[in-house]
Design brief:
With 282 residues, the chain is α+β, with helices and mostly antiparallel strands. It folds into two domains: 86 residues, DNA-3-methyladenine glycosylase AlkA, N-terminal domain (TATA-Binding Protein), CATH 3.30.310.20; 155 residues, Orthogonal Bundle (Endonuclease III, domain 1). Helix content is 49%, strand content 13%. The protein is built from 14 helices and seven strands. It has a five-stranded antiparallel beta sheet. A two-stranded antiparallel ribbon has the order 6-7. Helix 5 packs antiparallel against helix 11 and helix 8 crosses helix 9. The longest helix has 17 residues.
Length: 282
């Protein structure tokens, strides 16, 4: 498949492009991603079977158009298309999700307002894990700044002008003091990032929730959030402050209890509440 070739990916049941772009813009990693809200596009580098590949995704209400910016074999483009479909949750059947969440008085107006809302996953679990750690206990803007500095120093350039997120091996071998200094982290946070990279590199695959929790500096909120992003559609983050405020200032225990009625689609309830509170562009 040549450069500039665009592939249409439908989203049965529709897509909410404003909500998706709002979330992508809020978490955009400078240098590795580019979200252009007015153009309704998002560009990023995807890890592919033959190496990092840049794509531009244009969002609409019925699906997305994916433009490949490099020459690809069909087998490689097929693999990247599968990644995009998982990332954007394009294959979810939204009818049972809406039916499960609409009886709740708090969620009913949110579901009615955004019936095509989907859960954004990840194109690279390691990237999502590291950027989530970088964003712990700081604002979204600060987390983006830290991630951008990390990519600028340790990321791999691509022909698109965007950089690929660092491979686990690269961060595992990073000098702790250099990482701390160039990114602007505390020593403890830098140590968490390097330890995460080492454990990920040793495992050769995504770490389990139990393995993540065993790393000093990674707590329950981070693991809950990553479970949502990694594809568990019943995952939930009862300790999340934005969520608890959206539910009237309740405690984490109360949020957990309330969420039982939303099983097995608690991740969608969480995203509806987050979107209404923080990610909506309109």
């Amino acid at each position: 498949m040549g450069p500039g070739v665009t592939v249409r990916l439908d989203a049965p049941g529709g897509l909410d492009p404003v909500a998706v772009l709002g979330s992508l813009a809020a978490h955009n990693v400078p240098g590795a991603e580019l979200t252009e809200v007015d153009a309704m596009t998002h560009s990023r580098v995807l890890p592919g079977p033959e190496g990092p590949r840049a794509v531009k995704v244009r969002f609409g209400t019925e699906g997305v158009d994916v433009e490949f910016e490099q020459v690809l074999e069909d087998s490689e483009s097929d693999a990247l298309i599968r990644t995009v479909r998982r990332w954007l949750d394009l294959d979810a059947d939204l009818d049972p999700i809406r039916a499960a969440l609409s009886p709740d008085a708090r969620l009913a107006p949110l579901v009615a307002a955004r019936p095509a809302l989907r859960v954004i996953g990840t194109t690279d679990r390691f990237q999502t894990a590291v950027t989530t750690v970088l964003g712990q206990q700081v604002s979204l803007a600060a987390g983006r700044t830290f991630s951008g500095r990390l990519v600028a120093t340790f990321g791999e350039p691509t022909p698109s002008g965007l950089r690929a997120f660092p491979h686990p091996d690269a961060l595992a071998a990073a000098d702790l003091e250099e990482l701390r200094a160039v990114v602007g982290l505390t020593s403890a946070r830098a140590r968490t990032v390097v330890t995460l990279a080492k454990k990920w590199s040793e495992a050769g695959t995504a770490l389990t929730p139990e393995q993540l929790l065993a790393i000093p500096g990674i707590g329950p909120w981070t693991v809950d959030y990553l479970s949502v992003r990694f594809g568990d559609r019943d995952a939930f983050a009862p300790g999340d402050l934005v969520l608890r405020r959206a539910l009237g200032g309740i405690t984490a225990r109360e949020a957990e209890a309330r969420s039982q009625a939303w099983r097995p689609f608690r991740a969608y309830a969480l995203v509806h509440l987050w979107t209404a509170a923080a990610y909506s562009l309109g």
